[in-house]
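Onboarding guide, step 5: your first structure request.
Type a short instruction followed by the sequence, for example:

Predict the 3D structure of this protein.
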Amino acid sequence: MAVIGILISLAVVGIQALQRSQRETTRLNDIRNFDAKLAEYYTKYRHYPILNHNDNPLSDIKYDIGGTEQGVCLFVPGMGDPNDCDVSVTASYKFANVIMSPGFFGSVGGTHTPFDLLGDYDAYVCSPGTSDPNLYEVYYSTRTTGTPQEYMLFGCLESGKTQNFGSLTNDN
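The system replies with structure tokens like these:
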């Protein structure tokens, strides 16, 4: 009986590791898709989506964490509407919707939105709450001054902070 118990516990641990690996892969692919949309946006408009804080209607990027689908809305420059980011709807004023897998989360401990000034990528520490297998966070920030324009894009997953997909490491 003890041998059967040990075998069952090993199987459960193996299944949990496999599930975690699948979640991580899916979420990294979400971030890569987001990164690809940023490249398309840059190709079309010659700048990355501009981030304005405090729900400024001029923001070119907003997140949708409500409804049946979660994700990011990239708006045509100057046409963003902070009250109208529903990733399940396409519209002429939207450049693209990026659908994220379940668990996409919009804040860290209630103190930051994922599209907030983050400071230094290397010094940023993911919130301990991001180890929740049901949640993950994606962070985007940009600097629109200087040449070339740069952005920062990374995620906080179960395994910790991902690589920075952009070239910006410090937005201060």
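Each response can be followed by summary notes, for example: Confidence is low (pLDDT under 50) at residues 107-117.
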